[in-house]
Amino acid sequence: MAYRMNEQEKLSGIRDRIDAIDKQIQTLINQRAECAQEVAEIKINAGETEHFYRPEREAQVLTEIKKRNKGPLGSNAMAHLFREIMSSCLALEKPIKVAFLGPAGTYNHAASSKHFGASIDQYPVDNIEEIFRAVETGESHFGVAPIENSTEGVIAHTLDLLINSSLKICGEVDLRIQHNLISTEVDINNITKVYSHQQSLAQCRRWLDANLPNAEHYAVRSNAEAVRIAKNEKGAAAIAGVMASELYEVPILCTEIEDEPNNTTRFIVVGKNEVPSSGNDRTSLLVTTNNKAGALHHLLKPLANRGIGMSKIESRPSRQGVWEYVFFIDIEGHKDDEPLAEALSEIEHESAMVRILGSYPKAVLK
């Protein structure tokens, strides 16, 4: 009995410490929020009303948080906590409106929340064109659009829109795509229909063949839409992410059913303004080559000569002539970094056209 009392006293003491620490944390968060309000006031008095969100500044802060973290919480978990604190503080300065491929609960929505935090003004739209249009017209401050998937490859439609848009890439988000079987049915054997986006159905084909061989597959506009349909249909299930399950209050029946365990989608953040260097950046280029032998080799040589890494190159028809192409190239560094600035100057002499789509911080949150 004495032993039990001693343990209860220890637990009571620890809980008292937790309560005291929580009060300190709450006080400090509100002090941080007050600082954010002061920053907003200074900017407004200086006539600055547009540049409240600073992608490079937030990337630097999150990077430092991960570097100085000593545990036991993991560095990425700590960064996610601060992401939400920063999002809430920024909302006190000026709420950010972000367009993404809707409806609410899609992976695009999850990517938007991961990058900007939950305290944004959400603006779901019906297609990728509307994401670009919303930012171009000022209806939204930023847009989040998928650019490539580790399983399915590049999203060509997004690349095509970048060709004709004046918007800049000002950030990126890497989102691990974890597909779940979501249904009001409690027994998987009762499922006769599976709804999802066509890409998600393709990414789970082996699992579906092995576990639901007799179920019919129905492709719909989005995974979130699939959950809404499955919620009200007997014998139906959807393939979607955790956010859709929580948002529409439909239980997850089976987790992580994707065929490729490291399935990841990269999203870009588009906006109207250029982003200063954060110290760990990526630059995206749109390049056309002269129609001569070895043109692409000569084009990339200035990068190789300076040891500048290239993470992606993708070609698309230029639509200006038969068999003429434009190249999308992702390279390491910021356009204002001296080695890269020199290389870009040389590339301009070798190419028919060079357009910098954006220099922006690499994804910090994993």
Which descriptor suits the 3D outline? globular
By CATH, the architecture of the largest domain is named 3-Layer(aba) Sandwich
Question: Mind telling me the CATH class of the largest domain?
Answer: Alpha Beta
Low-confidence stretches: none
What does the oligomeric state look like here? single chain
Mean pLDDT score: 91
Structural class of the helix and strand makeup? alpha/beta
Q: Roughly how much helix do the residues carry, as a percent range?
A: 40-55%
SSE inventory with pairings:
Layout: H1 2-45, H2 55-68, H3 75-93, E1 97-101, H4 107-116, E2 121-125, H5 128-136, E3 142-149, E4 153-154, H6 156-164, E5 168-176, E6 180-182, E7 193-196, H7 198-203, H8 205-211, E8 216-219, H9 223-231, E9 236-240, H10 242-248, E10 252-254, E11 264-271, E12 281-289, H11 295-305, E13 310-317, E14 325-332, H12 338-350, E15 351-361
Parallel strand pairs: 1-2, 1-3, 7-8, 7-9
Antiparallel strand pairs: 3-4, 3-11, 5-11, 6-9, 6-10, 12-14, 12-15, 13-14
Protein architecture, described:
The protein has 366 residues and is α/β, with parallel strands linked by helices. It has four domains: 26-91, Up-down Bundle (Chorismate Mutase Domain, subunit A); 95-177 and 264-271, D-Maltodextrin-Binding Protein, domain 2 (3-Layer(aba) Sandwich), CATH 3.40.190.10; 180-254, 3-Layer(aba) Sandwich (D-Maltodextrin-Binding Protein, domain 2), CATH 3.40.190; 281-361, 2-Layer Sandwich (Alpha-Beta Plaits). Helix content is 43%, strand content 25%. It has twelve helices and 15 strands. The protein has helices at 2-45, 55-68, 75-93, 107-116, 128-136, 156-164, 198-203, 205-211, 223-231, 242-248, 295-305, 338-350, and strands spanning 97-101, 121-125, 142-149, 153-154, 168-176, 180-182, 193-196, 216-219, 236-240, 252-254, 264-271, 281-289, 310-317, 325-332, 351-361. The longest helix is centred in the first third of the chain and has 44 residues, at 2-45. 36% of the residues are buried. The model has no long low-confidence stretch (mean pLDDT 91). Residues 5-97 form the Chorismate mutase domain.
